[in-house]
Amino acid sequence: MDGGGPGKDPDVYFEGIRASSFAGRAIPARKFVDGFDFFPAGELSYLSGPGGGGKTTVSLQLAAAVAMPIAACPQTNWLGAPVGVRGPVLFVSCEDDEYECQRRLEAAAAAEAFDLRDLRDLRIYDLSARLDKALLVSPQRNRLEKTPLFNALEEQIAQIRPALVMIDNRAQAIVCDEIDRSLATRASNMFGHIGKLYDSAIVILTHPSLGGIANKTGSSGSTAWSNTGRSTVYMRRPDDADDEGKEGGIDDGRRVMVSQKSNYAPTGRRVNLVWECGAYRCTDQPRRPDADIGQQSKGERVFLRLMAVFAKRQIDVSANANSPGSYAPNVFFRDAREGLTKSALEGAMKSLIDKGTIEVVVIAKGTSREKKVLKLAGGGDGPHR
């Protein structure tokens, strides 16, 4: 590769990829560590929650499910959903010592009926007693440095190439001004780089600020933390919890995990949990095998209703996915779609076209205003002018 010419740094260059090379190229399936699409594989994510709220417990449950050898258990679940990635796991604990981790794992083993002796691929790194437990430090403004511990951790990741690395928690592992956008971006990029380099999901546990608790976002410090990570999940008590946030308030063990930000999956995904016998389990009703029955007819009904609504508004919609501003599933997804997903709306549109119920019509053919729009077949009312 040519780094380019006299006086140029051979290590600094741009090399573009021609988009034409994408044609016909297979795209790897997107993978998530868990069954809720919370934590994408090979990327940096954050799991936020108040202190004592259960983050460490659910994290160790996930670590155990991922690290369990396939030979010992062909399929493992986390909070009732099958995990999507299996392999070694590194759990870096800056607060709880190894004995506390053992207590929580023993409780999880009893609840999930697995044998701790099978977890040879789950490694616990106990940094709780260290004063110098930071992985990244900011010795002065606008400067962030790796510590020897960071280098040692990266060496472990390079050797083991784990499927998952969990760090508990950000405040202990990254010592810097958390409201400094440049430092937050730099720190997240350092961990994100390691994740991509070794195909390891990196999940860093965080504590929300008082504002993040009050507005139920789980945020703390600069928005660059969440913006630079690929996913942020907030674990908290449910909205109807009695005396939530009050000193001495009764904790009934219920929690909700909410996807606050996700680059690769829908945001707003909620999972309801309850703490029982030392571990968390999901209380949501499992999806029925026949849950999709009737969805196609519902999708077609909703699609036709929205076509009529947009025709009345004199708004054209099209079947061309390359025109996102008028593409019917995109436009309808932002309206009263009765809970249908964008893919369901796309399926309904294609089915209605195949049946001849709707059709693509050319408007103002041969002029500068020519365009193709969707309308009801047979000359019915449609979005035309």
Structural overview:
By secondary structure, this protein is α/β, with parallel strands linked by helices. It has two domains: 44-243 and 250-282, Rossmann fold; 295-379, Arc Repressor Mutant, subunit A. 29% of the residues lie in helices and 19% in strands. It has ten helices and 16 strands. The strands form four sheets. It has a nine-stranded mixed β-sheet with strand order 5-4-8-10-1-11-12-13-14. Mean pLDDT is 87; it is low at 244-248, 289-294 and 380-385.
How many strands, which pairing sense, and closed or not: the largest β-sheet?
9 strands, mixed
| Tally of separate helices | 10
Radius of gyration: 25 Å
**Strand segment count:** 16
Distance between the termini: 55 Å
Strand order, main sheet: write it out. 5-4-8-10-1-11-12-13-14
Mean of pLDDT: 87
The first-level CATH class of the largest domain is given as Alpha Beta
What CATH calls the topology of the largest domain is: Rossmann fold
**Would you identify the CATH H-level superfamily of the largest domain?**
P-loop containing nucleotide triphosphate hydrolases
Poorly predicted sequence stretches spanning 5 or more consecutive residues: 244-248, 289-294, 380-385
Q: How many distinct folded domains? A: 2
Beta-strand fraction estimate: 15-25%
Task: Please state the overall shape, judged from the principal axes of the Cα atoms.
Answer: globular
What are the secondary-structure elements, in order, as H or E?
Answer: EHEEEHEEEHEHEHEHHEEEEHHHEE
Second CATH tier, the architecture of the largest domain? 3-Layer(aba) Sandwich
Strand pairing plus helix content: what structural class? alpha/beta
